[in-house]
Every structure is written in structure tokens, then in C-alpha cells.
Hints:
Elements: H1 8-26, H2 32-36, H3 42-64, H4 83-101, H5 108-132, H6 136-141, H7 148-174, H8 184-192, H9 195-229, H10 232-245, H11 252-269, H12 273-292
Amino acid sequence: MMRLIPNTQLVLAGISARMGDFLANAGGGSSGAQSIIPVIPSWRLFLLSLGLLLLVAWIIHRLLSKQKFSLDRTPARDNNLNLLHLLFIVFLMLVGMSVAGSFEENSKWRFIVGALGQIVIAAAVIYIAAQSFRGRLKRGLGVTLRRWKSDLARGVIGYLAIAPVCFVLLQLMAMIPDLQDTHPLLEQMDMSKSPFLTFLFVFVAVVVAPLSEELLFRGMIQSMIRKYMKNAWIAIIVASTLFAMLHPLWSWPALFVLAVAMGYNYERCGRLMPSILIHSLFNAVACIGWLTM
């Protein structure tokens, strides 16, 4: 479904394809470990090591706290969201897919139309939220910069902490050749070396996709599920599962874990900025890896 829309799938498809090529070419080496380690640049090893320390420290901190991992005391986001709102968003997605699908599979216009479709979806979610949340956008949906310093710290630390887990899962899935996938647009970009197309790809992956997907999955779907289920963790798990399932099979484990981290951050602070930043950093680092491999 999401194959026609430029999002996290595009970034990970590039990483998967190039990682698969690397492992295939390195397969004749002396050992499997030696074939995997060289693909990790020093800067990424540093980030992963730092992230692992942060993750362990956070787990210890939560285990020592009274609430541990409970989200019962986190503020609820009172809203009137229902299934009709979600069906309307799905309708917009289907229209966007239909329009984008009218262009050739490897056409840049298909990518551009898909990007515009994500912007329309983001605008629709914002409009619905403004009408459905008691606190409107700022105190309801959580679209605000009133605590930008705290949100910046949450986003950066949240990304660093979850990155090692996602990286290991992606590495493991990349070892399964039958699950690897290459997006036609990425193949075209590799052949054309177009600076414009590369810039557009990075912009959509780092800015447009995190904004639209977090507004939809965390802001709308997770909030709606929590309203009916009265349990934040159930809302996080369901929204994270849906998020992962709308991407290729090989990316499900990593994206599910990533989505849980973003959903947890959203519930803890009630603001979307940390989740958007985690998503953006994840895609940005993946883009750097794709461009430099």
C-alpha cells in the first residue's frame, strides 16, 4: 500500500539493497562477522555505542522508579475521534495512490505526487485534530514548540537509545536474501545521479514523512485507540503494529521497535515533537548510510 508513497520504506529499501549486495560480495571472506563489521563506519559505531549506554541507563532508571514502565499517570488526550475520521484519511491515501499510480513506476513525478499526497494527509489530520481534540492542536494533539528544548533533548536521546536495537534488527533481516527489496525510484536515482532527485528524496524522508506519519499514527490513531481502550500501552502496540505492517516485511521488526519508542515518548510528554524528531533522525541517519555506502 505505502509503496507508492515516499516514506521510511524508501530509505530502508536502499539500505537493504546495498547491505544485501555487500554481504553477498563479502560472503567469500574468512568469517561472517568480518563481513558485517566493516560496513559500519566509525561515526555510526560511536552513535550506536553511546545509544546502548543511554538505553541501559534508561532501563535501570525506570526499573528503580516507582512507576517503572507504567503509563497510567500520563495525561490523556481527550478527543472525539472515531472510525469515520480514520476512514476519511484512508480514502485520501487511496486517492493519492491512484493519482501517483497513473505515472510510470520509476517516474520522478510519481514520487513528487506521492510526497504531495503525504502533505495533504498531514493537513487533513491537523484539521481533524483541531476539531476533535478538546485542547485543539497545542494541548490536545500536542503540536507545539512551547517546550522545544525539552522536546529536542527527548528526541535526540530517544533516537540514540533505540538506534542500536533497530540497527541489529535491520542487520539480521538483511541476511535473509528473499526478504530484501529495492524500490524502483532508488534504482533510478542510482542510475541518474540527479542532485535534484536526491535532494527531494532526502527532504521527503527527513521532513515530510516523519511529520505526516507521526501525525497519523501517533497523533490520530494512537490517541483514538487510547480513548476507547483506556490503556496507553495497548494503544502504542496497536498503532506501532499498523505502522510496521504498512512497510515491507523485512523492516517490520525494526520499525515496530522504533514505533514503540516514538509512541512511548508521545504518551510520556503528550507532545508530538519528540516523536517526529526521533523519526526524522532515524531517516536522516539511514539516508547518510544510503548515500555513503
